[in-house]
Design goal:
This protein has helices at residues 44-52, 85-90, 102-108, 122-134, 152-164, 176-182, 204-235, 245-260, 321-329, 363-368, 384-390, 407-418, 437-449, 461-467, 487-494, 501-514, 529-556, 561-564, 566-600, and strands spanning 6-15, 18-28, 33-37, 59-64, 70-73, 140-144, 168-172, 185-190, 193-197, 281-292, 295-306, 310-314, 336-341, 347-351, 374-377, 380-383, 425-429, 453-457, 470-476, 479-484. It folds into four domains: 6-68 and 139-206, 3-Layer(aba) Sandwich (Rossmann fold); 269-346 and 422-520, P-loop containing nucleotide triphosphate hydrolases (Rossmann fold), CATH 3.40.50; 354-417; 529-600, Helix Hairpins (Orthogonal Bundle), CATH 1.10.287.380. The longest helix is centred in the C-terminal third of the chain and has 35 residues, at 566-600. The chain is built from 19 helices and 20 strands. Helices cover 41% and strands 21% of the residues. By secondary structure, the chain is an alpha/beta fold. The strands form five sheets. Strands 5-6-7-3-8-9 form a six-stranded mixed sheet, with helices on both faces. A six-stranded mixed sheet has the order 14-17-18-12-19-20. The protein has a three-stranded antiparallel sheet with strand order 2-1-4, with helices on one face.
Length: 601
């Protein structure tokens, strides 16, 4: 059996006086698919950085097989030192990396290479960082929350791309479906330790629950044993008044064992303050249309929403989900059609943009709106420390500034602030970003128990499947369709998932071409980074294909080849046809780019 590409042994790390990692272990084999799971703050990202060689542990060893290449995707990419996204992606190439995959990755991820990092969105920066990480096809790819800020088409593309690679993958994500589809081994970060499961994430939660149940049973047995020993010490028969020193020492050892046990951190106690009942009819849209600057966002859309409905909205970024949501809430006026809202509506919007949070506020100030030590939860008043504990914050974090919190902690804070208010219409706009799996479970339970109406906008397929009973899907060109069930049900009914707007446009162009249409002329203006890079790479690619073509021609010219090895001859002939096709495609692409270059000049 081949040795591991990377090994971490007895890794320990302490921040301040709190141990974060204690004797953590990790090994990565060739073509491994490993997911790191655990609560926010359990040390997943830190262990990944140690594995990538970016953070040095206090103790333990890290060994990487000589020649092994590693690429790491950070949770928050920093492009500030680069003028364009293309320069950032290209700077990730090291040594013998040729970057031939860069144009393909940029095209798949919707980038031109000319984007200015100072004005790029979180999703664009994430896509640029993914292109930089995946371009060299390293031996080990380490990904920290790769799906954050990505829409569904990008997530599903990334899933397929990673599945096709021969690289080993070490992955952190809170997207259940993503983990289930990619992982084959699971490392659980629990109370500073690593616990390994030789199966993918789909088997993890049952295994974790069994482990915790057994741990609780063992703790109960230990408590009973201590009680028996204490009873013997105090109530031993009169003939044994003189204490048995060995039994006394054993009792002290058992008590120390209890003290040394690390208790499982409690669960978040997420509750929502429900307002008065709304009317039976929450909203009715009849043949509603809405456009901006001539672009249709919603076209002839109708839906009826009743009290208690659970509605999901899905579509690629830029499809108009927010516009549709605002039409449903009466915040936008329709260009045509009719929007009828019900009575007694008390909407509550919980989004994950966290724009309302002042980074200089302390956690306590954010909970209390910068005043006092009480949190108003509906009609009741709760002490801020108690309310913090309900959302898994420690009392000593009360004075922690918002900017020092992790992404997951800011997510929990946003939930805590929003759910204080009474409501009967709950709008969850991307609620799953940065939340750990346990908090997601409780948020799902909250939606299930909520007596009002829920509308969810999300790119998390598993969350949608678990929470909504109807799904509004984007069909392209401003068209929206209502499907029964969650995301998977929608896929079953329509035969596909959410597609990128660019992909839909490409398919429309193919259809027009097949119908005898003419493709649009090449755009004028300077060539994009992607086109320039491709124009430089194509001659080398064609030269390589010509060499392969010549070699196969010489091989098949041998008159005895077919008689000697008919299967080999047929394979060589098939390879020759494939190379001819690639060569023809490269020549056509090169000619098109040369025409674009001449037009730009």
């Amino acid at each position: 059996m081949a040795p591991p590409l990377l090994t971490l042994a007895n890794i320990s790390l302490t921040f301040g006086t709190t141990p974060l990692l204690e004797n953590a272990e990790l090994s990565v084999m060739a073509r491994d698919r490993i997911c790191l799971v655990g609560r926010n703050g359990s040390g997943k990202s830190t262990l990944l950085k140690i594995a990538a060689g970016l953070v040095e542990a206090d103790d333990g060893t890290r060994f990487v097989q000589p020649g092994t290449t590693i690429r790491y995707l950070p949770q928050e990419p920093d492009l500030s030192a680069f003028k364009t996204s293309g320069a950032y992606i290209e700077a990730g190439l090291i040594g013998a990396d040729d970057g031939a995959r860069i144009p393909y990755l940029m095209d798949a991820l919707g980038l031109t290479g000319e984007e200015d990092p100072s004005v790029m969105s979180g999703g664009e920066m994430r896509r640029a960082a993914l292109a930089r990480t995946l371009a060299p096809e390293p031996d080990i790819i380490m990904l920290d929350e790769p799906t954050n800020h990505l829409d569904l088409p990008a997530i599903e593309w990334l899933e397929g791309e990673l599945s096709s690679l021969s690289s080993s993958i070490l992955l952190i994500s809170h997207d259940r479906r993503f983990l289930e589809n990619l992982s084959r081994r699971t490392i659980w970060m629990d109370r500073g330790e690593t616990r390994s499961l030789g199966k993918g994430f789909a088997h993890f939660e049952d295994w974790r629950d069994e482990f915790l149940e057994q741990e609780e049973l063992d703790r109960h047995k230990l408590d009973r044993k201590i009680n028996r020993e204490q009873h013997w010490i105090v109530h031993g028969v009169s003939g044994r008044r003189k204490r048995n020193v060995r039994r006394v020492k054993e009792l002290a050892g058992l008590r120390q064992q209890v003290r040394d046990q690390k208790q499982v951190v409690g669960s978040a106690a997420i509750t929502v303050t429900e307002g008065q009942n709304s009317g039976k009819r929450v909203a009715t849209l009849e043949n509603v249309s809405k456009s901006f600057d001539g672009r249709p966002i919603v076209v002839d859309f109708s839906v009826k929403i009743a009290r208690g409905d659970r509605l999901g909205i899905v579509g690629p970024n830029g499809s108009g989900k927010t516009t549709l949501l605002k039409l449903l809430m009466g915040e936008h006026e329709a260009d045509s059609g009719k929007v009828d809202l019900g009575v007694n509506l008390q909407p509550l919007i919980v989004d994950q943009k966290r724009e309302s949070l002042n980074p200089e506020w302390t956690l306590s100030e954010a909970m209390t709106d910068n005043g006092g030590d009480k949190v108003s939860v509906g009609d009741a008043s709760v002490h801020v420390i108690r309310y913090m504990k309900d959302f898994l914050f420690l009392p000593e974090q009360a004075r922690t500034p918002i900017h020092a919190l992790s992404g997951g902690e800011r997510g929990r804070l946003q939930l805590a602030r929003g759910l204080r208010l009474p409501s009967n219409l709950l709008i969850l706009d991307e609620p799953t970003n940065d939340l750990d799996l346990e908090t997601l479970d409780l948020l799902q339970e909250l939606v299930a128990d909520y007596k009002g109406t829920v509308v969810v906008v999300s790119h998390d397929r598993d969350f949608l499947d678990r929470t909504v009973t109807r799904t509004i899907g984007f069909e392209g060109d401003g068209k929206w369709q209502v499907y029964a069930g969650g995301y998977s049900d929608m896929v079953d009914q329509r035969g596909r998932g959410v597609q990128a707007r660019k992909l839909a446009q490409k398919e429309a162009q193919k259809a027009a071409k097949a119908a005898g249409g003419v493709s649009a002329p090449a755009p004028k203006g300077k060539l994009s980074y992607k086109h320039k890079f491709r124009l430089e790479q194509l001659p080398k690619e064609m030269e390589g294909l010509e060499l392969k073509k010549t070699a196969l021609e010489q091989k098949m010219a041998d008159g005895d080849f077919f008689q000697r090895d008919p299967d080999g001859f047929n394979k060589a002939l098939a390879d020759f046809q494939v190379i001819l096709g690639k060569l023809e495609a490269c020549e056509e692409e090169w000619l098109e780019l040369e025409v674009m270059k001449d037009a730009a000049e």
